Amino acid sequence: MMEQPNDNVILFPKTVEYYQFELTRLLEAERYSEAIQTLRFLLACRSDDQRAREEWQSLLDWLQMMFPDLALELPYDTEDDDSEVDLLKQHLLAKTELTPEYAERLLSSLFEQHAVDKQLLALDQLAFIEHPGIDDALIRFLSTPALHPLIQFRTLQTLKKRGAAGTLLLTKNGEPTEIEIEDTPSGFDEFPSQIQEIIKRVQEISETQHPALAYFAEETWNEFLAFIYGTSAYRQMLKQDSAYVDVWAAALHLTLLERVFDGGDKEELQELYGITGEMAFQWEQAYRMMQQFAHIVFSRKG
To answer: Which candidate, 49, 51, 59, places its Cα nearest to that of 12?
Structure first.
């Protein structure tokens, strides 16, 4: 999930809150290997929150005791993704054979549960369960009023992983949007190259200016893509030339500084990213969209 951390990374109070949320999410999804790597990263950083550090150390000790094989793994390897998926499939196959109504329970949880983390956990499992009616239920679920944009996107991903296809008319961020299930990126590495360049630019700048930000900027960007995918703003992003990579990158960078750290300097960041007067209008549009996203997403992390 992350490279070996530097000892000059400082965790601000809001950053600690952010990672507390991420750890809870990883544990609820039973992604213990990633939780161990995250805890090791956090404990290698500098923080004034001694209570949080003690909690992280205790949790790490418990995980390493309960899962010694995972504790001996090298820092996160992409091959782990495949092995964890295979283990999940085997686990779900055994579970559905033992409990035939398990799929219905997951669907009920998806429709009735309002906690985003619980819904994500149900979707992760539904992607790999063979049961008639799941696809239709997921398509029906997508028509739920005011569905969280991250859940909406993950439901589309789940349908694609299950082999579903077709055009869906959805309401996304207040606008009607036509989306082809089969065109939905299964992973964030499947987004167009110009989209991926934006996060690379943020990481490049933040590594020298704000080191701690570089470690979780990618995940925030991924959540933003889920929020914006399929909308007119997303389509506009795809049409813009390479010069406007910096517009979106600067907007993301400033939003992270404002929401997770102690604030940022707009003029300084615009200078760092080379935002000229000609880009001012596009900058304001990108920043407003980022703020709309941050209001929804960071409100559940704070």
So the answer is: 49
Strand partners, 179: 168
Residue with tokens 């990579």: 245
Pairwise CA distance, residues 76 & 36, whole Å? 10
Taking the C-alpha atoms of residue 110 and residue 66, their distance in angstroms, rounded to an integer, is: 29
pLDDT at residue 74 tops 60: no
Per-residue buried b or exposed e for 279-291, using 16+ beta carbons within 10 Å of the residue's own CB:
beebbeebbebbe
- How far is the CA of 290 from the CAs of 124, 211, 279, in angstroms? 26, 21, 16
H or E element at residue 100: none
Stronger pLDDT, 5 or 137, i.e. the higher one: 137
CB 207 within 8 A of CB 183: no
234 CB contacts (<8 Å, ≥6 apart)? 225, 228
Strand partners, 168: 179
Tokens representing 79? 């091959």
Looking at the chain, the number of H-run helices and the number of E-run strands are: 16, 4
Amino acid letter, residue 209: Q
Which residues are 176's β-sheet partners?
A: 171
Q: Which residue has the higher pLDDT, 213 or 111?
A: 111
Which two tokens mark 281? Answer: 């209008």
Give the number of residues written for the chain. 302
Q: What is the model's pTM? A: 0.71
